[in-house]
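Sample intake sheet
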Amino acid sequence: MTVEQAPEKSWHSLPMSLREARDRAGAWLEQQGVEDGRSHAERLLLHILGIDRAALLMAWHDAFPESGLPVWESLVRRRATGEPLQYVIGEEWFYGRPFAVTPAVLIPRPETELLVEAVLAAADRLWPPTAEDGAAAPTVVDVGTGSGAIAVTLSAERHGWRVCASDLSPDALEVARANAARHEASGRIAFAPGDLLAPFIASGRGGTAVDGGKRIDVLVSNPPYIPAADMPGLQREVRDYEPHLALEGGADGLDPYRRMLEQLPLLPAMPRIVAFELGMGQPAIVAELMRAMDVWDDIRIITDYNGIDRHIVAVRTAQ
């Protein structure tokens, strides 16, 4: 009897080897509409066993442990409903580091690593990392930090930078704080609750900062950018499980960018670097808005791994 012909219960029936467990569960996941179910089943297997792939390959013919069967069934069934793999196992890798993720935060995407690389490169030109003087290091703000992937990565890569991460969601900030602690960056990152740039604007100017506001040298943000009308058509893993607060950006998806650009003049000083992640077709529109502000002399659009315009990095090269 082939895997496809087997009755449903066969995918978790003992005895079976680890390889059989992967193959059977993978085929069943694909029948439930999960793309590339076998690779997802393998990641779940690695998670349950607590080993890496090299160890799994050496143990392919070992018997699946009976004690692990209840957890295996539970996790595979959760993935079959459409719950993202990263939420099922509780983490995702970003820039070579594991980050805890919960339904309170977006799952970090590989294309956002390109945003981090662009910020590092642009800031290193203005504030060389070889400088020993801490006063020469930039103050960097990550708006809408979510899991903290951007803020924690920047702090881990540049220990001298002063990093602050903000988010409107208290639950998201809790996840970000946990990830900062996990990567020993808690002492280098401040966390601020609030909407977009409000936590960094003095209360007398419409913000929520009570200390006159924070000077920002580098602003980086991956805000919500999905147009409201596109939300129902998203992949079920995104639409039904990831937080809509971090996804929907208004009628055309550009509301957060317009609001941040309007808020920038209310800061103590205009950031020398502003870096955004955006959706398909949006970077050219926002870049024009930024050029009209006549603040940054170098505004570049960066494509992602699929050749799609994805990021804007605007730099004011002169002091």
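Comment: The first strand starts at residue 91 and ends at 94. The chain has eleven helices and nine strands.
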